[in-house]
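Changelog entry: the Probable ABC transporter phosphite binding protein PhnD1 record was regenerated in this release. Current contents:
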Amino acid sequence: MVTLGGSATSSHFEVFQGLEELFRRRGIDLDWILYSDYDAMVDAFVKGDIDLAWNGPLGYVQDQAPAGPAVSRHSDARFEDLLGRRFAFGRRSSEQAGLVPYYVLKQSGLNPDKDLSAVSFYEERESRNTSDERDVVERVASGEFDAGAVSRRTLELMVEDGSLTGHPVRVFWSSPAYSHCCFTAQQDMEPQLVAQIEAAFLVITGSDEVERAVLEGEGCSSFVAGVEEGWEIIEDAAVTEGLV
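Regenerated structure tokens:
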């Protein structure tokens, strides 16, 4: 029996139900547990209570111890141009809209809390928008903030649905590419079982209703093999901020 853990969200509930069915088709018995938050899931993985963890990038780094552009209303903005400006972040717990951009600003020589006239995380603002990244973009577009941090995918979706039509928002810097969410297996799991699990993910193509539901729940068109590279910027940021 393989036990999979994740955070308690409606999408994970649906996805894990589908994975249970798809794994059993390939002869793998899968059970799953949903935890109240990522921290509880990470703790369970570290303790060995679960075999697989559906991790965000910070969770993966914590277990082992989507590139996020910044947007601006100014066409020629550079990091030094942010001095005295107002900067909006997404959630503090968001790697692409909180942790990494805050770390990058510090690495560029700026002290966000001293060198910017205003610094705001999503949790500190009153917002009717349930998406922290859309909130950032809308506030930059309105002129409330001069710049902010979001994922490129958020900008693409807002362009697709017309949310950015006519707004003077543009990308002035993008981070290097880095790895994001992943399924993580315990290091002492039998190699043959690991290979079976990886194969079970890689053959999901959306060929039937169950496969389509899993892919739609994760917002992707397929799963790819995991890599050990591409986590460095997350790890550096997490260490700098005392998170690991």
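The domain at 69-174 is CATH 3.40.190.10 (D-Maltodextrin-Binding Protein; domain 2).
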